[in-house]
Amino acid sequence: MGEIMDTSNEIFVKHPGKTIINYDNEKVVITRKGTLNFMTQGIKGSKTIPIKSITSIQLKKPGMTNGYIQFGVLGGNESNQGVLNATQDENTVMFSKKYYNEMTSLKENIEKIMFENNNKKSNSSESVADELLKLKQLLDSDVLSQEEFDQQKEKLLSN
After folding, report:
1. Assigned CATH for 7-113
2. Predicted pLDDT at 77
């Protein structure tokens, strides 16, 4: 299955290195091109980061040096040593001043997706708990047998 992503959720950073960032509700894809990226990152192709794996997003505003956006991931060891080390982190994208507003929007949009995904998870676990309570009430009032209760409980918990 090919990766077709909405180009409205695409940012093309041309400076300091050529990098394309695509994102949707499931993932962020970082694709690096050009000589500078080859020198700092080597040949790595596209990097896909599942949204559910992102634990933090750090945005450093450009000043005397380039800025960067860094995606912290579960089990990752992102650099917290500043711009120089961030250039070699595969979950970091460097950018010049003119891209700062786009990167701020990117950070906000991905954090919004993360928040919405977390809310969906908590709502679904609440509904499973509610269903279990209803089943227990049906069992207690002898509408369901113990066997029927166990079968329904198994179905709910396996989803």
Report:
1. 2.30.29
2. 62
